[in-house]
Amino acid sequence: MKQTLIAAMLGTVAMATAATACEITLRSSDTHPDGYPTVVAVQKMGELLKERTGDRLCVEVFHSAQLGEEKDTIEQTQFGVIDMNRVSLGPFNNIVEETQIPSLPFIFRSTDHMHKVMDGPVGQQILDAMAGADLVGLAFYDGGSRSFYNSEKPIRSIADMAGMKFRVMQSDIFVDMVAALGANATPMPYGEVYSSIQTGVIDGAENNWPSYESSGHFEVAKYYTLNQHLIVPEILVMSKIAYDKLSAEDQAAVRQAAKDSVPVMRELWTAREAASEAKVRAAGTEIITDIDKTPFIEAMVPVYAKYVTTPKLQKMVEDIQATE
Ligand code: GTR
Question: Which ligand 1 atom is at minimum distance from the Cα of 30?
């Protein structure tokens, strides 16, 4: 009698567990640490998805590059080993040509301009183009504006950069961008930058406030020049293999939850930018703000000439420039 009761109780527990366990858990990659806006935004997307599918579909974010560096995790997402991935558009440049356009230096006039473009037809065109790489483009996130930092000296003009070595994301555009400024570019994974600056393999790198801060790069490269050469959006993609396994209804739920995480991300980003700047400034970093951007913009003419090579890409540039 007692045994039957226990067995019955265990059965109830098992059923209860089954009812709350996720049927499908989508594994999502991010290079950033827990608490970083992109990580929190994807976690939030997962919460929405879980709630809306009655606990069937869940997302688990593997932060801090646990699944690898961006270039490798993109490949793994294409192969279906990773279900979802939040990455910069930069490492996509050599894979999906449309991503080159929002990765061009000084293409956006401001973050607002970038939001308008990525929320509009050009953004949709890029999300759709992900299909050509066996991926489903879900949403764009903020990546702030990127500026140069280094361990050697304050950079106040292009001339100051002559011969210096800067790490860039793994994309040819950024290699050419740095070359056009008279410096040398070393493409390398994000996770190797700290020690490479520390050991003098490179003089510096370039990034936004939150990444400069959370990576600790500000500790080893204390001169940060706010020339803001790039406003590269970030993207949340899903593996087409994983996406195709879902019902049409679940696919729609994934898309909607991703879209709904965008305003959450934008709010988190604004707050984190301010917090990161405050932390970096308090650490005694030298921030160079009196910088004339015009020569930097003018130096990018050959970069545009090299990458804006087809009528399709030219039209994207024009569409972006025409967006008010
Ligand atoms: C960050 C971005 C990451 C990664 C990193 C990098 O700003 O959020 O996705 O691209 O820069 O420089 O590699």
Answer: 9
HEC assignment per residue over 209-236? HHHHHHCCHHHHCCEEEEEEEECCCEEE
Q: Flag whether pLDDT at 8 surpasses 80.
A: no
pLDDT digits (tens, 9 = 90+) for 133-150: 999 999 999 999 999 999
Task: Please give the number of the atom of ligand 1 that sits closest to the Cα of 38.
Answer: 8
Q: Where are the beta strands (DSSP E) in the chain?
A: 24-29, 57-62, 84-88, 135-141, 146-150, 165-168, 184-187, 204-207, 223-230, 234-239, 286-288
8 A C-beta contact, residue 27 and residue 82? yes
* pLDDT at 6 exceeding the cut of 90: no
> Which atom number of ligand 1 is nearest to the Cα of residue 87?
9
Residue nearest to atom 10 of ligand 1 (CA): 88
Ligand 1 centroid from CA 95, angstroms = 17
pLDDT digits (tens, 9 = 90+) for 288-322: 999 999 999 999 999 999 999 999 999 999 999 99
Whether the CB-CB separation of 192 and 213 falls below 8 Å is answered with: no
pLDDT at site 20: 61
Residue nearest to atom 3 of ligand 1 (CA): 88
Spell out the domains of the chain, with CATH numbers in brackets. Answer: 24-96+110-141+232-278 (3.40.190.170), 146-230+287-322 (3.40.190.170)
Q: What is the value of pTM for the model shown?
A: 0.93
Atom 2 of ligand 1: nearest residue by CA position: 88
Residue in 141, 234, 265 to alter for ligand 1 test, most ligand atoms within 8 A of Cβ:
234
Query: 45-71: per-residue pLDDT in tens?
Result: 999 999 999 999 999 999 999 999 999
**Distance from C-alpha of 303 to C-alpha of 124, rounded to nearest angstrom:** 24
